[in-house]
Amino acid sequence: MTIDILFIWTAFKEIIKALPITLILTILPLLAGFIIGLAVALIRIYKVKFLCRVANVYVSFFRGTPIIMHIMLIYFGFPLLIDQISKKFDLGIQSNSIPIILFVLTALSLSAGAYLSEIFRSGIISVSNGQMEAAYSVGMNSFQAMTRIVLPQAIAQSIPNFTNIFIGFLHTSSIAFIVSQKEMTGAANIVASTNLKFLESFIAAGLIYWGLTIIAEGLSFLIEKKATAYNRGGVQ
Amino acid sequence: MIYLKDIKKSFNQQPVLKGINLKIGKGEVVTILGPSGSGKTTLLRCLNFLEKPDEGIVQVGDVQVESKKATKREILSLRRQSAMVFQHYNLFAHKTVLENVMEGLIVTKKYKKAEAKRESELLLEKVGLGDKHNYFPSQLSGGQQQRVGIARALALNPEVILFDEPTSALDPELVGEVLSVIKAIAQEGITMVIVTHEMSFAKEVSDRVLFMDRGVIVEEGSPLEIFNAPKEERTRQFLNRISRDFSVSFLEERAN
Predict the structure, then answer these.
(1) At what angle do helices A19-45 and A51-64 cross, to 10 degrees?
(2) H or E segment to which residue A32 belongs
(3) Mean pLDDT of A128-157
(4) Which of A74, A221, B6, B11 has the most C-beta neighbours closer than 10 Å?
């Protein structure tokens, strides 16, 4: 077997067409997960009655099972649920008219929420309790102290962790292909099997993922440098 | 002005305050002395409910709170009567020196930004940090950070400023700059409650000295009375021990 170097470029051009889908499958779940994660982290830190237990089970389940399983469960489970509810209340919604990508996005968002909640929790805990007390002592209420003093620092400290999750989810988005959502890995698979050039196609896909990761790391580095400038001491 | 009635507080069934009654008048400077574990800091923190007393009444300014029934709103308005200077400064790490002082003005006093800025600049000038507006706390020495803490407290123009061992975390050579700032504001007639281990400072600055031990106020009086003629045995022992420590460490330094 020989390797067709030129075909890597051909495959590259074909695969990169699926880049928007990959980005959608990465960024939207992370944005949704950001909100879910923050809410869950606050619920667990403040030990809100009842909700706290729900949050614990949620985090435990979604971090304790593989993401591929969340996609499967939601892809096969939700249509059943939706059809049942639709029939009962006569809503006239048919599950097969719902685009697949919505199921994938839901599954990935729920997973991202669970992982991000732990990042938020560690970020919030890392801000010294003394600053919270100082905020109270100048007359802030808990909400003001959280939003003005604690969260900005918690989020700035968590930037490397967010980058980690971003990179992880960029690569995880590839498993959407198992429910026939054609993102980059899916595109690579199709190019590979139609041309019978597997190695070349996956090298091309690999290069794109690697390039995206390098860009993400670079951006993260710049943002982190700016956001945590307060913490580095030294004289200006 | 400040009125405490029968304040009790325990941590894990271990009583720390065993019924404190106290009145402090407007403009009075009161220092609280006592061995560690005597409840001084807890008492101070009960004044702004950073520690919630188990029992008793706390009044600061015209806000009175009954500990057992305290609501969030009551606690908030009680806290807005006072300001606190912390042992470990507790400056807002992500905000510059100027923003640290402005924060309380903007959030709780609802000042406009420009107004808050002008006010804060004046205060920073007063504590000798007029040239450090845009520094972050991590870029300052301990003494400078504590002076920012004092400016942040002053900005609120509170009924009372609570000092929780303001110099205990400082290098010995930086203690002086902080104490002189506190002395200067004491002379302006602001009510202050100070927990400290600096005996000569307490002697100099306070109108009244309280000596606490094992959760009760053992003795109180003017600095002259407490330091020169303590009535209680426990006060005498404490002061003796402290002054002996002083002379021992002085001798050690000489020996070295």
Answers:
(1) 140
(2) helix A19-45
(3) 95
(4) A74
Q: Tally C-beta pairs within 8 A across A and B.
A: 81
Chain A, residues 109-128, CB within 8 A of chain B, namely 127-128
Neighboring chain B residues of A159 at a CB cutoff of 8 Å: none
Q: Where are the domains of chain A?
A: 25-181
Confidence of residue B254 (pLDDT cuts 50, 70, 90): low
**B135/A138 Cβ within 8 A:** no
**What pTM, to 2 d.p., does this model score?**
0.88
Q: Tens digits of per-residue pLDDT, B15-44?
A: 999 999 999 999 999 999 999 889 999 999
CATH of segment(s) A25-181: 1.10.3720.10
Amino acid making up residue B140: L
- Residue contact B80–A133, C-beta within 8 A: no
Whether chain B has a CB inside 8 Å of the CB on A135: the answer is yes
The mean per-residue pLDDT over the stretch B125-130 comes to: 94
ipTM rounded to 2 decimals: 0.91
Of A137, A143, A144, A231, which to mutate for an interface test with B (greatest number of B Cβ within 10 Å)?
A137
Mean pLDDT of B101-111: 94
Q: Which residues of B touch A156 (CB under 8 A)?
A: 94
Instruction: Report helix, strand or coil for B61.
Output: coil
- Distance between CA atoms of A149 and B99, rounded to whole angstroms? 12
Burial code of B29-64, b = ≥16 C-beta within 10 A, e = fewer? bbbbbbbeebbbbbbbbbbbbbbebbebbbbbbebe
User: Residue A172 is encoded by which pair of tokens?
Assistant: 């995880």
Nearest residue of chain B to residue A138 (CA atoms)? B104
